[in-house]
Structure formats: C-alpha cells, structure tokens
Specification:
Blueprint: H1 3-27, H2 34-57, H3 71-74, H4 78-90, H5 105-113, H6 115-118, H7 122-134, H8 142-171, H9 176-205, H10 209-233, H11 248-263, H12 275-282, H13 286-297, H14 301-319, H15 327-333, H16 339-350, H17 354-366
Helix pairs in contact: 1-2, 1-10, 2-4, 2-10, 4-8, 8-9, 9-10, 11-13, 12-13
Length: 367
C-alpha cells in the first residue's frame, strides 16, 4: 500500500468515526427532534458504508468476511430519509405516517434479494467481491443498468427534497437549518453526478471500480467533515424548529401589508421611523414584524428601511433634471437625517458612492 493510499484510508476511517460520533451527539438529548433522529440515522448509514468499503480497500475484510454485504441494502434507506428530513424541517407538525413506510419497499426488496449472499461462506463472499471490484461493466450487462437505476432512484428523492425546500424558501428566506440542508443536498448531488458520469464512461474507458470507489469515499468523508464543522460552529443549527406556516394566507397578507407600507405609503421617508412605530402602523406585534422581515428578506428592519431609502435616493437622482444636484438634499428627501449615514448605506447596498452614481447617471443621460 502506498503512502498516499494510507493517508486516504486514514481520512476515510476518520470520516466514518466522525459520522458515528455526530449521530451519537444528535441522539443524546432527551428532547431530540424528529429531524435529529432521521439525520443521525442517515449518518449511521454513511458511517457503515464507509467502514465496510474501507475494510475492503485495506484487505482487513479477509479476517472478517461475514461483514461483507451489510451496507448494500441499507443504502436504499438513504433516499427516503433525505425526503423525510426535508418534510420535517419545513413543517413543524410533520409526522411519519404509516403510508410513509411504503418508501422503504426498495430497501426490503434489496434485503430479500441479498439473502443468498449472506448465506455464502466467507471465502465465497471474498471471491465475489474481488471479481466485482475488478470487473469492468459492459453496456450489455444487467448489473450496469441496475446500478444506473440506483442513481435515478436517489436522484428523484433529492429532487423532491430540494423542491420542498425551495417552496419553503419562497415563504421563509432566512432559515438556517433549511438553507444549510439545501446546501448539503446540492453538494451531495454534485458528488453523485460526478460518480454517475464516471460510472457511465467505465465501459468506454476500461476504468475499474476501485478508483472511483476510493474517491467517492473520500468525497463523502469531506461532506461529513463539513457537517461536523458547521455543527461545531453553530450548535443551535439542528435545535431550531420551523416557523408556523399553517396559515399561509394570513402570513401572506401580513407580508403584503408590510411591503405596501414601504412601496405605496413610503413610510421609510419618515426620518425617525423605528420598529415600534412601524409595528403600530401595520397593527402587528414588534416580534411578528421583525420575524417576517427577517425570514422574508433575510435582513433586519433597520436594513430594510435603509434599502428602501437608497431605492428612493436612486429614483430621485435618475428623475432630476437639474444641472447641479445637491446630494445632501437627496439624502434628506430619502429619509436620512445626515450625510454620513446616507453615504454609508449607499455604499453598502450599491457598492459605490452617491457621487459616483450621480456621475454615471449624468453620463448615461448625455449618451
């Protein structure tokens, strides 16, 4: 075994142990959420898959051949878990119903189909795996298309999960758990596409399965490490509960009411406007206004006021026919009470200064 292979195998072992450790951390709290239970189950499955593949790569499996084949059927549990997790973090009232267990049928089928393999002797299992690892698939082989079907199977579930998360983000833009899980699924999708591309080209290039198997394990290790890093960096990530979206019509009405105050009533032009006054103007509590703005726009109320004031300032600059435009007048007309805050906000939202923006508008009008 080369030094590079040894380093890769050490990293893969660390990833497997990390997966087991994270799952244990998620399961320890007594008030653990359904999402935590599902996520820990997914990590345990990934840990088992990594561990078994590592045993094969390092030839340690020769000493414990009866561990072979454990991970294959449980791989078919991953797609339903991915979908259930998406439902769980977007609907606080979600529960796994009896009909949900129909999603586990492929797992049960694969478990039954693999029963003959489990009754093989240790030597027979080792010989079978050795032939499988060295075999180059053919486009005429049933195994080739069966493996492709698994990519399609898990791809459908990832697509459905991302669709659920995207629909949720139309209502709630700033939810840390949803945004994080969406990122994980996108990263996992890229990993699967690369794996699929390599597998589909194997018959043409005469590539064996061993290389992509090791690389896929390494990529999965890095994904697990990114999960661990995120959990360490933000321990509240998986303890948050999704907002109550049971009455979407009422929420949409409140969102429209808040937006109308800015876009129609131009309430941001009041220089001393604050969250309390704004909440009173729309007849909502301060916490409700703050929560809706944060989830809808991913910014605070103060930032939203500044955003609309800058929008107003840009409109005034573009509509002005004066040869000489006083920016301090624009600032006051936009709701700012001093030049410093106006320049700071303009720079933050437009990545340029008001004076530079004014010059660019003048040049555009001349041209």
């Amino acid at each position: 075994m080369t030094n590079s292979s040894s380093i890769i195998n050490i990293l893969i072992l660390y990833g497997a142990l990390q997966a087991f450790f994270i799952s244990l951390v998620l399961l320890i709290p007594k008030n653990r959420s359904l999402f935590n239970k599902l996520f820990s189950s997914l990590l345990i499955i990934e840990g088992i898959i990594l561990f078994e593949r590592l045993l094969v790569e390092t030839a340690i499996i020769n000493s414990v051949p009866h561990l072979l084949g454990i991970s294959y059927p449980i791989s078919f549990l991953k797609p339903p878990l991915i979908l259930f997790m998406a439902y769980t973090i977007t609907d606080r009232n979600y529960e796994i119903q009896k009909k949900s267990y129909l999603h586990l049928m492929p797992f049960g089928l694969m478990l039954i189909l693999n029963l003959p393999f489990y009754f093989m002797s240790g030597t027979e299992k080792l010989n079978w795996v050795k032939e499988f690892m060295e075999k180059i698939p053919s486009y005429q082989s049933f195994d080739f298309y069966f493996t492709l079907s698994f990519f399609l199977y898990i791809g459908i579930y990832i697509f459905l999960a991302l669709k659920i998360l995207t629909r949720f983000r139309l209502q709630v833009l700033n939810n840390a758990t949803v945004n994080w899980y969406r990122f994980i699924l996108i990263a996992y999708s890229i990993f699967l596409l690369i794996h699929l591309f390599y597998f589909a080209l194997q018959p043409l290039g005469g590539l064996n399965f061993g290389l992509i198997n090791q690389l896929s394990m390494l990529v999965m290790t890095f994904i697990i490490q990114s999960i661990a890093f995120k959990l360490i960096g933000k321990s509240t990530l998986l303890s948050s509960t999704p907002p109550d979206l049971s009455d979407l019509q009422k929420r949409k009405e409140n969102e429209d009411l808040i937006i109308a105050q800015f876009e129609q009533n131009k309430i941001h032009l009041i220089d001393d406007m604050n969250l309390q006054k704004f909440a009173e103007s729309v007849g909502l509590s301060i916490s409700d206004v703050s929560l809706i703005i944060n989830q809808k726009f991913n910014i605070s109320f103060k930032k939203l006021v500044a955003f609309y004031r800058i929008k107003e300032a840009k409109d005034l600059i573009q509509q002005s026919d004066k040869t000489k435009v006083r920016l301090i007048d624009i600032a006051y007309q936009s709701g700012f009470n001093n030049k410093v805050s106006f320049y700071r906000a303009f720079k933050e939202f437009e990545q340029t200064t008001p004076s530079d923006y004014l010059q660019s508008v003048k040049k555009h009008k001349k041209s």
